[in-house]
Amino acid sequence: MQDLLEICCGLDVHKETVVACLLKGSVHDDKPQKTIRTFSTLLPGLEELKAWLESENCRHVAMESTGVYWQPVYNILESALDGTVVVLNFQIFSQIYLVYLVEQ
C-alpha cells in the first residue's frame, strides 16, 4: 500500500473513551512517528481531542462506525477540521488495517 498522507489519525471509539493513533512522517520515510492517546467521550474530552489534532496539524481522521458512539466524535471533528473525517464500516476498516500490518 502506497503512503499518501504525511499526517493522519485513526480513532477507536468506545462508550467512554476514544483511542487516537496519530501517524506523522514524510511519505518517503520508512516508518512514521506513532503517537497514541486516549480521550474521554464527554464534551471536554472531545474538545481536547479536537485541540490535539489541530495542534498536530492533522486534517485526515478515520474511525469505525460501530454502534452510535462515533456520532458525537464526528460532530465535534467535522466542524473543526478542514480536511476529511471518514466514518468506515468495521469490515473495511479492518481490511485496511490488515493490509497495513502485512506490509510492515
TrEMBL record:
It holds the Pfam family DEDD_Tnp_IS110. Residues 9-94 form the Transposase IS110-like N-terminal domain. It comes from the Bacteria. InterPro entries: Transp_IS110-like_N (IPR002525). This is Transposase.
